[in-house]
């Protein structure tokens, strides 16, 4: 059994079908890059896996937790997959430490000292232990995104979804975030990332999914996808870069 | 104008004024805390709550915002007893202020909730929080911070509006002024003094609310 | 004891509603005129006038309308005039309305001025020209929704004049209650009549504001 099983997933917004039957199985420890033009459905796919969007048909399961649109199933699913957003979405009224502690205490009912210890550990892991008491608006974009990663990690997910996590960053801040992701990959974390960082995808990912018009148009190891694209659409997409 | 102003009665009647001030402060303290609490609940229900609850909250808010406080007070104090709901003057005054502020603060707080970036809801959800937990721990505080100035103004308006509770014989500052003028026949002076006291109370209340804001929201928020 | 039908009650209340409407109109129009005057003082060049307008607004917004009514009622009496309730009510409401309208309008002028000021200065216009041709026409447009919205506050505020003895809807409510001993019904009806007067104005204010926002987004 694969860790993440995505089967015939369809999703429409009104008359616009964004996902037209996606199939994808992800093994534990895999790092998957999802690439494609904007509007190809890649972000929607990621958001479906976390239950932020309801799917119209098909099924998604993560380590046996089925995606169902009720609170109990959603909670079980979201405890297994963490998500990092393009816009960081840190909670502005809490410190970096508070951001990392909150859901542990609220959702897992972890006692404060343990949550705090975990927050320290996770911030350490992303290289921001010294920013524990800083508020989000005192941090650079790169630092905010690393706090967001620590926040997701503190819930001890078995997979992480990364939705264009470097797209909102100034170019000079991209590498510090990617370095954290690279480390996570090396430690064996299962990662699904929508990204425009092709070099990173090539270096780090085990498989690349090219999405086009709501379908997983081409899937393969990075070497095959980037050096030897089979479909004209992928050729055109890579040529555009 | 041959009228001679006379404030000599102050020497005898200041305890009456003081008692009235105390009641007015008590009314606004209770009214503000419970009224805002009611407003938070209604704002949640109207913006994020279950579908069946929303029309009821909307009706309540519209009814209160489009009728005078005086009539709300009379309805509660004179009208409700015929349904078997007997209240003291102060209880009725308190209830009227809570119900009134609840409706106004509902709309103000709702605007704060609606100005929340969608990503905040999604971040809460992605961390496995339930919608209510997300509201309580993620959305509420920044929403309140966003609208704190408007909410503070509304609380001051309700405090000044509380002057009419004297009409059901709740013994607030205006009641004290009425009492003094009926004893001393110094109507203008009595109301002049109490008006000045209300002005000071309004200024003080604004300060208190600003300080409370700094206490509840220790951080300035850029977004 | 005489029996009062629901119609008897309603008819008496509706007759008194005329005075609520009339007083609201007087307060709103009079307040609008005085408020315009205050607005020009507040945004004008003369420091003394600016300060006067500012403190005027603070005073009227920082004290209860009921106190203002009492002071008008008893204060005008000090001049030896026997003040009828309607006069005190009209004077107090006009002055009170003026303070709020001036403040609402100042907000609108400032909202426009922030962006437009430099643009029009750079065109070589003087202060009065800028106001006349650039700021005010635009401020007027964004001022309409909150002004309509405030008319609701004026109608509700007229209820307080019942306390100094002006017979309008609220006072009629109390009088009818004393005659019928049916406070629940009577005050319920009074509330509904106020609602019928105010709600259409509240709604139009909201609709106007939404329209304005849409128009602004298309710029």
Automatic annotation (TrEMBL), chain A:
GO terms for cellular component: plasma membrane. Its main location: membrane. Residues 4-238 form the ABC transporter domain. It is found in: Cell membrane. CDD domains: ABC_HisP_GlnQ. InterPro entries: AAA+_ATPase, ABC_ATPase_HisP-typ, ABC_transporter-like_ATP-bd, ABC_transporter-like_CS, MetN_ABC_transporter-like, P-loop_NTPase. Gene3D superfamilies: P-loop containing nucleotide triphosphate hydrolases (3.40.50.300). Keywords: Amino-acid transport, ATP-binding, Cell membrane, Membrane, Nucleotide-binding, Transport. It comes from the Bacteria. SUPFAM superfamilies: P-loop containing nucleoside triphosphate hydrolases. PROSITE patterns: ABC_TRANSPORTER_1, ABC_TRANSPORTER_2. GO terms for molecular function: ABC-type amino acid transporter activity; ATP binding; ATP hydrolysis activity. It is a peripheral membrane protein. Belongs to the ABC transporter superfamily. This is Amino acid ABC transporter ATP-binding protein.
UniProtKB/TrEMBL annotation, chain B:
SUPFAM superfamilies: MetI-like. Gene3D superfamilies: MetI-like (1.10.3720.10). The keyword Phosphoprotein does not apply. GO terms for molecular function: transmembrane transporter activity. It comes from the Bacteria. PANTHER family: ABC TRANSPORTER PERMEASE PROTEIN (PTHR30614:SF35), MEMBRANE COMPONENT OF AMINO ACID ABC TRANSPORTER (PTHR30614). This is Polar amino acid ABC transporter permease. It is found in: Cell inner membrane; Cell membrane. PROSITE patterns: ABC_TM1 (PS50928). Pfam families: BPD_transp_1. Residues 21-209 form the ABC transmembrane type-1 domain. InterPro entries: AA_ABC_transptr_permease_3TM, ArtM/GltK/GlnP/TcyL/YhdX-like, MetI-like, MetI-like_sf. Belongs to the binding-protein-dependent transport system permease family. HisMQ subfamily. GO terms for cellular component: ATP-binding cassette (ABC) transporter complex. The chain crosses the membrane at residues 21-47, 67-85, 190-217. GO terms for biological process: amino acid transport. It is a multi-pass membrane protein. The keyword Translocase does not apply. Keywords: Cell membrane, Membrane, Transmembrane, Transmembrane helix, Transport.
TrEMBL record, chain C:
The chain crosses the membrane at residues 20-43, 55-79, 85-105, 139-164, 184-202. One of its GO terms (cellular component) is ATP-binding cassette (ABC) transporter complex. It is found in: Cell inner membrane; Cell membrane. One of its GO terms (biological process) is amino acid transport. Pfam families: BPD_transp_1. Residues 17-205 form the ABC transmembrane type-1 domain. It is a multi-pass membrane protein. SUPFAM superfamilies: MetI-like. The keyword Transmembrane applies. GO terms for molecular function: transmembrane transporter activity. Keywords: Cell membrane, Membrane, Transmembrane, Transmembrane helix, Transport. NCBIfam families: HEQRo_perm_3TM. Belongs to the binding-protein-dependent transport system permease family. HisMQ subfamily. This is Amino acid ABC transporter permease. It comes from Paramesorhizobium deserti. The lineage of its organism: Bacteria, Pseudomonadati, Pseudomonadota, Alphaproteobacteria, Hyphomicrobiales.
């Amino acid at each position: 059994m694969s860790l993440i099983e995505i089967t015939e997933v369809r999703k429409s917004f009104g008359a616009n079908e964004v996902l037209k039957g996606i199939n994808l199985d992800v093994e534990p420890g895999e790092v998957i890059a999802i690439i494609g033009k904007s509007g190809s459905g890649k972000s929607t796919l990621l958001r479906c896996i976390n239950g932020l969007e309801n799917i119209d048909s098909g099924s998604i399961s993560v380590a046996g937790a089925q995606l169902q649109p009720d609170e109990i199933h959603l909670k079980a699913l979201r405890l297994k997959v963490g998500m990092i957003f393009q816009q960081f979405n840190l909670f502005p009224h809490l410190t970096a430490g508070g951001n990392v502690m909150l859901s542990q205490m609220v959702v897992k009912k972890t006692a404060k000292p343990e949550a705090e210890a975990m927050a320290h550990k996770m911030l350490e892991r992303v290289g921001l232990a010294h920013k524990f008491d800083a508020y989000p608006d005192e941090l650079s974009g790169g630092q905010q995104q690393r706090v967001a990663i620590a926040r997701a990690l503190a819930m001890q997910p078995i997979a992480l979804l990364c939705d264009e996590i470097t797209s909102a960053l100034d170019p000079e801040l991209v590498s510090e975030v990617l370095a954290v992701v690279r480390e996570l990959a090396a430690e064996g974390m299962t990662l699904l990332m929508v990204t425009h960082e092709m070099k990173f995808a090539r270096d780090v990912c085990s498989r690349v999914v090219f999405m086009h018009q709501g379908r997983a148009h081409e899937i393969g190891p990075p070497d095959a996808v980037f050096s030897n694209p089979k479909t004209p659409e992928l050729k055109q997409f890579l040529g555009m870069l | 104008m041959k009228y001679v102003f006379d404030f000599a009665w102050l020497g005898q009647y200041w305890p009456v004024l003081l008692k009235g001030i105390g009641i007015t402060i008590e009314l606004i303290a209770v009214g503000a805390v419970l009224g805002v609490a009611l407003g938070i609940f209604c704002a949640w229900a109207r913006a994020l709550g279950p579908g069946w609850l929303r029309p009821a909250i909307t009706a309540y808010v519209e009814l209160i915002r489009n009728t005078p406080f005086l009539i709300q007070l009379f309805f509660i104090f004179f009208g409700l007893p015929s349904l078997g709901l007997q209240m003291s003057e102060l209880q009725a005054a308190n209830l009227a202020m809570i119900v009134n502020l609840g409706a106004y603060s509902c709309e103000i707080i709702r605007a704060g909730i609606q100005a929340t970036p969608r990503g905040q809801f999604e971040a809460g959800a992605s961390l496995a929080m339930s919608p209510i937990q997300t509201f309580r721990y993620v959305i509420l505080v920044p929403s309140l911070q966003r609208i704190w100035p408007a909410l503070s103004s509304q609380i001051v308006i309700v405090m000044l509006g509380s002057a009419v509770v004297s009409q059901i014989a709740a013994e607030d500052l205006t009641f004290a002024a009425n009492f003094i003028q009926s004893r001393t026949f110094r109507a203008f002076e009595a109301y002049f003094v109490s008006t000045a006291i209300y002005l000071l109370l309004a200024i003080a209340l604004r300060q208190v609310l600003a300080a409370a804001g700094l206490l509840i929201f220790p951080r300035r928020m850029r977004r | 004891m005489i029996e009062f039908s629901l119609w008897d009650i309603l008819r008496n209340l509706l007759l008194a509603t005329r005075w609520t409407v009339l007083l609201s109109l007087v307060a709103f129009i009079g307040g609008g005129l005085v408020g315009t005057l205050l607005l020009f003082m507040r945004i004008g060049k003369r420091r003394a006038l600016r300060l006067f307008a500012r403190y005027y607004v603070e005073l009227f917004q920082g004290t209860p309308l009921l106190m203002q009514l009492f002071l008008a009622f008893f204060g005008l009496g000090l001049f030896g005039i026997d003040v009828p309730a309607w006069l005190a009510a009209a004077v107090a409401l006009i002055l009170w309305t003026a303070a709020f309208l001036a403040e609402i309008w100042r907000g609108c002028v400032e909202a426009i001025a922030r962006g437009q000021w430099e643009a029009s200065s750079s065109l070589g216009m003087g202060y009065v020209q800028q106001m006349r041709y650039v700021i005010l026409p635009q401020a007027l447009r964004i001022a309409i929704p909150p002004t309509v919205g405030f008319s609701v506050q004026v109608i509700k505020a007229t209820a307080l004049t019942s306390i100094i003895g002006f017979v309008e809807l609220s006072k009629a409510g109390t009088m009818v209650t004393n005659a019928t001993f049916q406070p629940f019904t009577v005050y319920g009806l009074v509330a509904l009549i106020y609602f019928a007067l105010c709600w259409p104005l509240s709604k139009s204010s909201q609709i106007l504001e939404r329209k304005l926002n849409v128009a602004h987004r298309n710029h």
